[in-house]
Amino acid sequence: MPSRALSFGPVAEAYERFRPGYPVELFDMVMTYAGRPVLRALEIGAGTGKATRLFVQRGVRVTATEPDAAMLAELRTHVPANVRTIQAAFEDLRPGGSYGLVYAAASLHWTNPAGRWSRVAALLKPGGVVASFGGPGQLADPSVAEAVRAARAPFLETDDVPSPDGTPPGREMQWPGTELRGSEWFTDVKQSVIERRLTMSARDYVGHLSTISAYLELPASAQEQVYGRIMQVLPETVELAADIIVHLARSAV
Q1: CATH code at 2-139+161-198+240-251
Q2: What burial letters (b/e) apply to 55-81, b meaning 16+ CB within 10 Å?
Q3: Which of 4, 54, 97, 150 reaches 20 to 30 Å from 131, CA-CA?
Q4: For the chain, which ranges sit under pLDDT 50?
């Protein structure tokens, strides 16, 4: 898992171009749950700043942390100069108890499970909120999805990131809600889904795949082959079911 977590730097520009941003509905959901103004937030694994912008543009002072220098450099070109940025892994952040919100956008699964929740709690003010959100984009047309699975099969059995605690996809409560419910550090765990459908060209869809860790771990020659095979089976445009699964919890200390 650690090698996959640090595989995105070489494709930072593609990540910015092909990964979708986050809707205002997500911001409203987090703030409604918080129940009080959030002035300062810390972001774990900010990437190129897709979620950073959502919160910063609505008046939250965000400290964006990211271990990959190339990803952080890309982020800095898209956010205001007053956004504080730190090149650091989550595990290296110093506890401070000064944030009303700690959040992670499709990045929490890359963190070390040992002491994960005590570290988050140590960064929060009493009663502060942790938010984790994201979800894989799945091809909405089953026949297209099957064609893509067959095209990539010689190279990859799956391009999914497995649940860190082994929770199966059909379970009502998904990770990290499962861990949060069992944690002494958090309470009032909620899971919500923001439905989202995206339409993109076949070329942009392959561009999106080029930012997924499973493909990035392949040798360069294999990447070129698998992208070519997938392009051959795609229609001109594709629709993605790209629902955002949101987990929220409140510090119990």
Answers
A1: 3.40.50.150
A2: bbeeebbbbbbbbbebbbebbbeebee
A3: 4
A4: 1-6
